[in-house]
Every structure is written in structure tokens, then in C-alpha cells.
């Protein structure tokens, strides 16, 4: 061993210096090596590979700073690592290295601090090319991601396609469309989409979009199947795939169609209901306005109908109502509209009449047909209607106005002996002075703050736990005591008084809820109703943000309830406002759901959290099959759209049991608790089991 020469001797014998030997070794290793001084980070050594990777000759690198060598863009990424190693920490990280004249490489960088014999502090830089390993890892990750997405959707029909050609699919596609994989492999995916949706689907695929949309696809036997389609891009080293996930929404569409019909028609007579009537009347009047034509509204009430119900029972009464509906439809033109507006009251809309005589002739025909004898279980019955008539444009130009005046004329017909018709005449309605008096009292109430809020609990259907309150405004009327919103909101809207009332309600509800939270009571949200008029006329999102800031209530403890009409009147404005509310963190519910007009198609376009099932659909359950069908459809629709459902007007244990069976989420109503003032609501919460 003593015969082996020392390294220095070996270098001297071969004519090499230690520096040249170090240079030979450093330039021979595949790693990139460099050394920088601290704290100025100037290069004092670099092997050939490191210099070449950064676009320098070796000698040109010496004395340059790290920032000059790696460049400004890379320095932004690595300077934090340099600070850490300067503090004595050994650092390792990966980054992309752009090499001159070459593709970018993925490298692993190791920075190691050292102190030389003379006390000089340096950083040793070791750079290894890990591109091959990185690409392999990425391929594995991509494969895993593809399989993960595939497994998440195994219950849905999934089609893999490349360049629009089917390459693979799961068994659910066969169940949905009837085709096996060999039958569709290589075929264009757009060929399975119904023609009316094909252009939309092609644009969706070509643009690489990934949001969901609805279309219909063609079964092998020719049937059209409504589906919801979601596309996903799947990167692959050999070329990108796309997958299409198809969800059969036949049940949802059927539920929507059934719900749309039930919400717009009377379940007994199958005639259009009041909501349908008012929408159609509005369209009729718009057309008449453009054509300078006339139209009429006939309001009918069956005389002494209550006597039939009381003496022969409700079944006989129902048969009679259906017969009256049939006779009314037989007495009018196909273009006329017959509707049941409630109880034993009906309305007829007559478009395109020439004069008042045309309306009178239809009314006389109705009187004659409806007086004809009708037999129920062998008992002959004969009823006559009292009919009121209002004419557009002389008796009014708005649907509500014409209906109200036809109603007033109908009452005049009853007072004139029943079984006759009367045209509207001034003075039949409530005198204008009474309306002005109500307006004055309401203005005084706003000035004096003569309102108070009552709170009605909302609970979970499954276990009865409290989940929130709805705030309901009351007017402390100087003569009538506490008055509910149904008796004054209409006049407030018509007289421009709804905004100050709405602002007071919003602020007071948030203030009270914050006070309860601060007192240690259960932290649940409060729901506040916004009328369509308020929604249109106010900067709702800005005002609510201000109220939340003033009261200190967290946004997640406030919910806004709007009606379906809000979504229909100005879709762009509604979407913008609801989006701003969602950004605040405020919840959004659709109140009185099912009582609007053709809004179901718009539900998915808005950030909605809850659907509130109108009390009119709940009150006769579980005895009414039609109402049970409506409630079932709404609950199923809510579940399909991932929206919570709230049943209003729950009064009996049987109703609650039905809702639990149907899977309804929440409930409120007298059967749970009547609305309570703030003090009683607080005591109610304090008495809840902990």
C-alpha cells in the first residue's frame, strides 16, 4: 500500500494539476455542477454541462451572479430557494430548464451550503436531468386520472372517442342506446345525436367544452331519449381522447311536463287555472293593443252551489263542476279560453270581439246552457251562474284590472237577483277614496316604523331539528291591529311604498338574527322575501351587502326568497343579481314554487339553493291524489337538480309523514309552529332540546 503514490504525486507524474483533474472529472459526469459564493451568489466554478445548459462558455460564467446566469424569469422561481440555502438549509426542488437549441427539460436541483477552510461560504449546485422519469410519472398520473373519472361515472353511459370516432364505451351505453361496442366502434359519435341537436353537439365537441347540456339521442330502435351530456378532455401521449357521459333524464322530463301541466291546470276539471288564465289574458291584451281590437273577460259564479255540496256531498259537487266546465267549453269558440279560478268560480277570455254585444251574446249562451238540468245519482239539478263582464279597453287595460272589474260586475249580478249578466260600471269597485285612505295610513306606518317581524321556524322533515326561520312582516294597523302582508303589500307595490318596507324588513331580520347568535342561541339562517318589484327596482346585492356589514350578520345566515316571476321578467338582470348574491354567500330560494308560468326550463341557469313547495299543494295532502302528485314531482325535480325542497303550510302529522316518505328535506307551517314575534321566537328556541 505504501508503494501507491499520493494523489498530488500522481498528478505531478502525469503532468496534471489538481485543478485540471477536478475539471476533467466535473466535465465527465452527466450531472450539471456549479459553485456560487455567499452572500453575493457569484459563480466561481461550473462544469461544461452547466455552462452549456445556460448558454455560456465556462470562463464566461465565472464572476457572474446567479440571477444573470439563470435569467430574470427563472430567478423569480429560484430566488426563494437561494435564500433558504443561504440560511444554512440544504434545498432540493424541481423546475423546467429551457436549454438553448434544445427542448425544455425537467431537472432536479440540489443546493448544498458549504464553508471552505478559509471561512468562505459557498453553495454547491447539483442539477440532474429527470425528464424521462417525469414524463413517465405524468403518463401514469394521466392514466390514473382517466380511470378515476371513468370509475366515478360507471353508472352512466360513457363513450370514449378520438377525432369524433368511437373507440370505447361501457355497458351502460348498450342499456341506453341498444348498441354493442362492435356495432359502434369507429362510427362518428354525432350520428347518435338527434338531428335538431347535432349542430350544438358538434360545436360543443369541436370547442372542447366540458359543461353539461341537454339533447336527445337515438336508440337503435329509433326512439328518441332525452339525455344530459357532459364531455371531458382526456390527455394522452399518443393523442387526446374525449369522453362523453350520457345521463338518461326521461324521468326528469316526464316529471317536469307533469308538474308544468298540474301547476297551470285545475286538477278536477282539467281547465286552465288562475295562473294560466292571467298569463294568457296578458298575451291576449297585448295582441289586442297592437291590433286596436277589443277583448272581454267574463267572470262566472255558480248560484247556490254550496247547497249542492252540503246536501249531496262533495262528490256530487265535483261532478257538477266538471259538467259545468264541459258545457262552458261547448258554448265558446276554440280561440276562447275557459278557466276555473277557484271553488265554483270560472272565467272566460274572449279575444277579438267586435263590440259589447258579442260578449253579451256569449254570456247569454252560457246562461242558457248552464241552466239545463243535470242528474246526479238520479237527482235532477239545475243551477244558474251570475256573470260579470268587463271589456278591453274601456273597462281597463291590465289583466288584473279587467279581472277585478269583471268580478265586481259578477257581484252586481248576484245583487240583482242572480242568474243574470251585468257589464262593469264605475262605482262597482271599492271607492278610490278608500284606497287613498289605506295609502295614507301605510305612509304613516312607514314614517312611524309601525311594523314588526314575526318568525316561523323551518325544520328538517326527518328529525325535526331547527334549520332556520322565515321572517314575516306585520303592519300594526291603527284600527285593525296586526295585519298580514297579503292585506297591504299589493297597495304598497302599486303606490311605490314597497322599497322602504323591504329595506326595514331586511335590516331588522339581520339585526335580530345577529342578536340571537350573540346571545348564544342556535346559529341558523333567516329567510327574507323579496317581491319581484323590489328585485327589479333596487340594487339588491349592494343593499344586502351593506345591511350585512351594518348588522354584523354573516352572509351564510341570510337567505333570500324570490318567486318564479322574478326569473322570467328579465333573465339577464336576474342572473346578474343572483350571481352577485351567491358571491356574497347569501342563500337563494324559489318561493311558492309551482305557481309560476313556464319557468322550469330556466331553473338550472340560476344559482338556486332551495325550492319552496307552495302551501296550496300541501294543504289537501295526503287526501288529494293530484296534490300528492304535484308535491312528489317537485321533490323529485329538486333531488334531480340537487336542490333542497321546503314544504310550506304543513299542519298535520299525516302531511309531515307523507313528506318524510317522499324525501322532502324541510318543512314549515302551523303544525310545527305559528309565526312568532321576536320574544316568543327566542323563548321557543331556548326551549328546544339540546
Short key terms for the protein model shown above:
alpha+beta, eight-stranded mixed beta barrel, disordered N terminus
Q: Could you characterize what this model shows?
A:
This protein has 690 residues and is of the alpha+beta class. Helices cover 44% and strands 24% of the residues. The protein contains 27 helices and 27 strands. An 8-stranded mixed beta barrel has the order 18-19-21-22-23-24-25-26, surrounded by 4 helices. Strands 2-1-5-4-3 form a 5-stranded antiparallel β-sheet, with helices on both faces. It has a 5-stranded antiparallel β-sheet with strand order 7-6-10-9-8, sandwiched between helices. Strand 4 and strand 5 (121-129) form a beta hairpin. The protein is elongated and about 135 Å long. Residues 1-11 have low confidence and may be disordered.
Amino acid at each position: 500500500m505504501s508503494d501507491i503514490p499520493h494523489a498530488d504525486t500522481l498528478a505531478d507524474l502525469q503532468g496534471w494539476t489538481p485543478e485540471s483533474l477536478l475539471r476533467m472529472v466535473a466535465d465527465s459526469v452527466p450531472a450539471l455542477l456549479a459553485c456560487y459564493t455567499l452572500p453575493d451568489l457569484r459563480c466561481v466554478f461550473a462544469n461544461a454541462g452547466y455552462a452549456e445548459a445556460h448558454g455560456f462558455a465556462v470562463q464566461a460564467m465565472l464572476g457572474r451572479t446567479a440571477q444573470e446566469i439563470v435569467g430574470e424569469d427563472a430567478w423569480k422561481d429560484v430566488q426563494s430557494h437561494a435564500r433558504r440555502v443561504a440560511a444554512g438549509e440544504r434545498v432540493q426542488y424541481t423546475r423546467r430548464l429551457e436549454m438553448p437549441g434544445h427542448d425544455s427539460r425537467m431537472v432536479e436541483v440540489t443546493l448544498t451550503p458549504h464553508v471552505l477552510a478559509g471561512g468562505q461560504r459557498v453553495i454547491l449546485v447539483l442539477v440532474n436531468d429527470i425528464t424521462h422519469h417525469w414524463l413517465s410519472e405524468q403518463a401514469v398520473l394521466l392514466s390514473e386520472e382517466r380511470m378515476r373519472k371513468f370509475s366515478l361515472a360507471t353508472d352512466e353511459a360513457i363513450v370514449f372517442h378520438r377525432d369524433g370516432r368511437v373507440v370505447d364505451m361501457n355497458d351502460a351505453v348498450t342499456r341506453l342506446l341498444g348498441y354493442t361496442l362492435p356495432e359502434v366502434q369507429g362510427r362518428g359519435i354525432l350520428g347518435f345525436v338527434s338531428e335538431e341537436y347535432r349542430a350544438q353537439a358538434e360545436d360543443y365537441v369541436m370547442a372542447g367544452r366540458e359543461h353539461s347540456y341537454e339533447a336527445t339521442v337515438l336508440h337503435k330502435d329509433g326512439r328518441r331519449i332525452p339525455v344530459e351530456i357532459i364531455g371531458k378532455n382526456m390527455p394522452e401521449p399518443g393523442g387526446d381522447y374525449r369522453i362523453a357521459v350520457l345521463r338518461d333524464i326521461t324521468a326528469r322530463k316526464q316529471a317536469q311536463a307533469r308538474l308544468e301541466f298540474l301547476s297551470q291546470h285545475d286538477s278536477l276539471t282539467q281547465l286552465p287555472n288562475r295562473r294560466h288564465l292571467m298569463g294568457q289574458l296578458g298575451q291576449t291584451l297585448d295582441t289586442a293593443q297592437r291590433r286596436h281590437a277589443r277583448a272581454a273577460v267574463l267572470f262566472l259564479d255558480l248560484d247556490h252551489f254550496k247547497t249542492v255540496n252540503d246536501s249531496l256531498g262533495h262528490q256530487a259537487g265535483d261532478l257538477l263542476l266538471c259538467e259545468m266546465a264541459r258545457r262552458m267549453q261547448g258554448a265558446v269558440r276554440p280561440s276562447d279560453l275557459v278557466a276555473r279560478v277557484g271553488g265554483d268560480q270560472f272565467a272566460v277570455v274572449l279575444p277579438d270581439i267586435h263590440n259589447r254585444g258579442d260578449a253579451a251574446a256569449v254570456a247569454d249562451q252560457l246562461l242558457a246552457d248552464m241552466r239545463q238540468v243535470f242528474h246526479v245519482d238520479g237527482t235532477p239539478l239545475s243551477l244558474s251562474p251570475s256573470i260579470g263582464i268587463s271589456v278591453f279597453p274601456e273597462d281597463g287595460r291590465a289583466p288584473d284590472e279587467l279581472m277585478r272589474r269583471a268580478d265586481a260586475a259578477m257581484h252586481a249580478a248576484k245583487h240583482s237577483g242572480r242568474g243574470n249578466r251585468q257589464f262593469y260600471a264605475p262605482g262597482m269597485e271599492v271607492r278610490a277614496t278608500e284606497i287613498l285612505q289605506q295609502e295614507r295610513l301605510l305612509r304613516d306606518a312607514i314614517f312611524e316604523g309601525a311594523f314588526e317581524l314575526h318568525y316561523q321556524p323551518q325544520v328538517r322533515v326527518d328529525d325535526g331539528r331547527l334549520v332556520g326561520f322565515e321572517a314575516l312582516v306585520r303592519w300594526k294597523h291603527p284600527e285593525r291591529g296586526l295585519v298580514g302582508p297579503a292585506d297591504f303589500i299589493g297597495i304598497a307595490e302599486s303606490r311605490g311604498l314597497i322599497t322602504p318596507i323591504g329595506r326595514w324588513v331586511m335590516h331588522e331580520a339581520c339585526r335580530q338574527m345577529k342578536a340571537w347568535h350573540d346571545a348564544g342561541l342556535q346559529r341558523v339562517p333567516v329567510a327574507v322575501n323579496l317581491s319581484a318589484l323590489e328585485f327589479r327596482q333596487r340594487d339588491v346585492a349592494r343593499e344586502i351587502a351593506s345591511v350585512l356589514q351594518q348588522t354584523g350578520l354573516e352572509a351564510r345566515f341570510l337567505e333570500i326568497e324570490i318567486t318564479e316571476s322574478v326569473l322570467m321578467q328579465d333573465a339577464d338582470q336576474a342572473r346578474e343579481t343572483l350571481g352577485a348574491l351567491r358571491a356574497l354567500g347569501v342563500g337563494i330560494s324559489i318561493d311558492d314554487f309551482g305557481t309560476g308560468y313556464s319557468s322550469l326550463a330556466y331553473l338550472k341557469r340560476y344559482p338556486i339553493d332551495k325550492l319552496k313547495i307552495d302551501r296550496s299543494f300541501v294543504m289537501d295532502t295526503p287526501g288529494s291524489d293530484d296534490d300528492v302528485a304535484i308535491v312528489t314531482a317537485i321533490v323529485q325535480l329538486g333531488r334531480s337538480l340537487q336542490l333542497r325542497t321546503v314544504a310550506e303550510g304543513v299542519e298535520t302529522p299525516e302531511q309531515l309523514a307523507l313528506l318524510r316518505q317522499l324525501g322532502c328535506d324541510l318543512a314549515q307551517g302551523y303544525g310545527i309552529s305559528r309565526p312568532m314575534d321576536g320574544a316568543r321566537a327566542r323563548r321557543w328556541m331556548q326551549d328546544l332540546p339540546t
